[in-house]
Amino acid sequence: MQIFEELKARGLIAQLTDEEEIRDLINAGKATFYIGFDATADSLHIGHFMALNLMRRLQLAGNRPIALLGGGTTMVGDPSGRSDMRQMLTQEQIQANAAKFKVQMSKFIDFSEGKALMLDNADWLLKLNYIELLRDVGACFSVNNMLRAECYKQRMEKGLSFLEFNYMIMQSYDFYHMFKEYGCVMQCGGDDQWSNILGGTELIRRKLGKNAYGMTITLLLTSEGKKMGKTQAGAVWLDPNKTSPYEFYQYWRNIDDADVMNCLRKMTFLPLEQIDEMATWKDAKLNEAKEILATELTSLVHGEEEANKAREGARAIFGGGNAAEHMPETELTDEDLTDGAADILTLLVKSGLCSSKSDARRNVQQGGVTANDEKVDDIARAYTADELRAGVILRRGKKNFNRVVLK
Predict the structure, then answer these.
(1) CA–CA distance from 12 to each of 30, 80, 297 (Å)?
(2) Where are the alpha helices (DSSP H) in 76-231?
(3) At what angle do helices 284-302 and 260-267 cross, to 10 degrees?
(4) How many other β-carbons are positioned within 10 Å of the β-carbon of residue 269?
(5) Dist. CA 105–CA 52, nearest whole Å
(6) Which GO cellular component terms, listed alphabetically, does the Swiss-Prot or TrEMBL entry include (predicted)?
(7) Least confident of 92-101, 113-122, 229-238
(8) Is the pLDDT assigned to residue 399 strictly greater than 60?
(9) Other C-beta atoms within 10 Å of 68: how many?
(10) Strands (DSSP E) found in 218-305
């Protein structure tokens, strides 16, 4: 099975500009393509993981990926999939975030010997003259067509800033620039990027009279149609300091039964024949499939050793083994204490078990928190420095554990 057919069989392809041309290009391993990553946070997350896996699959088939860091577009902010305007970041913050992206991307993509490129659109976007851009590129865009784009339509009721309105032009210019300078003939992205991708192909056609291509992948949704990659404590990050390997593992180990096969097909590199066989599994065997999924994904992001540690840790905690040896741990310092102690709400937030103090308060009041196997029902419950030095094992719900310890 060639790469195009495999992408279709895994259910990854959402929309294509030219199916036959794209199939021939990527099956022949002749496509230089790009995916953009705006540096809006200091780590990539599960949504980016889907894009990185697509780049890896295409690269293994001989195609050349360009990982485009959005040092320039992040300063504008993509309105796609947003109900409000993104937080404005400084150029220094954006570059610091982009530097962390580079490290994480290198785990998925082989940048050696020209097999892939890593570029930053700040290198050309920040140098553009506004009047020249309006005259050169602005005339190629119809405002009527732009307002019909899904990325803008959903924002019109709540208000779309002129700053964000320019985002499609910036992204289209990226494609146009890389088509000319690097022979990039295809842009890929999540399905929410379809309108922006079409803007780029149209700009290239109008300015250069040549064909360029676009392909989107399906968004990672649950069987209920909700985006995956969100937990009670926030996003599932690829940075182990934001989402530990154990927490990452547990997220996939605990997904709904109805989502297991979809995730195995779209996110792992396991052979489709093996996944088809697993689709017949039920009950205890389905839990085994979840364990395989969690191990495969944790290995891709954090390495085989961390994946094995996370799996054994989960088995120990929920199977009666030596839980303390494998449990994820949060280290506190004296600066985390107030008057020589730390209250339960602070500990829940510091450990990442809850996203905020209001979230922590709600969990305590609903009876969902224990500390050292004792239910905590007082939001003012505080732990002394001596108690914290000995270690306090927190649990939120049935499957979320963390040991906090004062060093």
Answers:
(1) 20, 20, 17
(2) 91-105, 122-125, 130-136, 143-148, 150-156, 162-165, 167-182, 194-208
(3) 30
(4) 10
(5) 7
(6) cytosol
(7) 229-238
(8) yes
(9) 24
(10) 230-231, 234-235
Q: What is the residue whose two structure tokens read 């096969």?
A: 261
Annotated binding-site residues for L-tyrosine read 34, 167, 171
Q: Check whether 83 has a pLDDT greater than 70.
A: no
Known binding-site residue numbers: 34, 167, 171, 230
Residues tagged in the binding site annotation for ATP: 230
Q: How many helices (H) and strands (E) does the chain have?
A: 20, 15
For residue 281 the two structure tokens come to 């599994």
> Which residue has tokens 């540096």?
39
Identify whether the C-beta of residue 265 lies closer than 8 Å to the C-beta of residue 272: yes
Burial of 21 from C-beta contacts in 10 A (0-12 / 13-18 / 19+)? middle
| Cβ–Cβ under 8 Å, residues 78 and 194 | no
Residue 8 CB neighbour total at 10 angstroms: 14
Give strand pairing partners of 231: 234
Q: Which residue has the tokens 């029902």?
A: 377
- Chain-centre distance for alpha carbon 311: 22
Q: What is the DSSP string of 329-381?
A: EEEE-GGG-BTTEEEHHHHHHHTTSSSSHHHHHHHHHTT-EEETTEE---TT-
Q: Which positions ≥6 away from 308 have C-beta within 8 Å?
A: 295
What six digits make up the tokens of 277? 């066989």
Task: Dump pLDDT digits (tens) for 373-396.
Answer: 888 989 999 999 888 888 888 988
